[in-house]
Queue: 2 jobs
Job 1
Amino acid sequence: MIISLISTGLGMLGGVIPDLLKEFRESREHGREMDRMDKQAELQLKLLAHRTDARLQEIEGQAQMEEVRAFRTQMSEIYKSQAPVGVKWVDAWNAALRPGACTVIIALFTAIAGTYAYGMYFGAPHLAEISTVIWGSLVGDAIQAVLGYLFGYRSGAKLSAAVRR
């Protein structure tokens, strides 16, 4: 009787063990499949992020190129507007305007710089303060803007002439 009980128990286990092994194998395969899917989703997310960054850089590059084109067009129009008009006194005024303005600005700069240097070296601090107030205000900014524009325009005109040759 014990033998039949043991054989019955082993028979029942023998019928269940293959199913248990199959279930264990399938659960491990399912776990591996889930890991593969997670890694694949992670890679797809990274790829999407990379493509998005590349597209954004491309869009930014296009926007910058459009800005450069617009700036170039604007500069071309400004350059064309500086051409002589054919009226002698207007052309003479236009020819004298830039050098005259530049001479006045440089003279002002020299006078104020001299005043500042005199005040610093010869003990007249109120002169140095006056110069600092002038250069730290809109007057100083305007002088710097005019000088910058004139030198920039001159350099641009020379560069444009060199390119056309």
Job 2
Amino acid sequence: MAITKKRNQQTESRLLLESDAPVELPPAEVDERAVVLQFENVRPFIPELLETLRAGTTAELVPVMRDGSTFALHTQTRTFWVKLWHASSEMNRVERVQVLSCLPSTRGLQVLIDEPFADDKFDEDDDPDMPEPA
């Protein structure tokens, strides 16, 4: 895990969390004003994100981003894609949280099918919605 030092417009610096593996985040101080939103419709879910960061959690790398610094944080009902900047390498204070996306959580969701699908029960000729071969 690497934490890259980035300088902002002010005099202090922040440490961008970067990794190629999941990162265990310890409980951390984080102020609501440290959150930057990509989309305003995410705002109602921010208290849940802050609660999770304050309690400590696992940050999982989002592989489709390919930047090594975008992580999925799973809360009770949502999954947030974020970039995190910490005040120090101890990661006990979050200076900035950039929220890129927020989706309803599907963790632990199971799909139950009453009757298993068997190949021998399906005949394409019986399906009226199937187009005729050309």
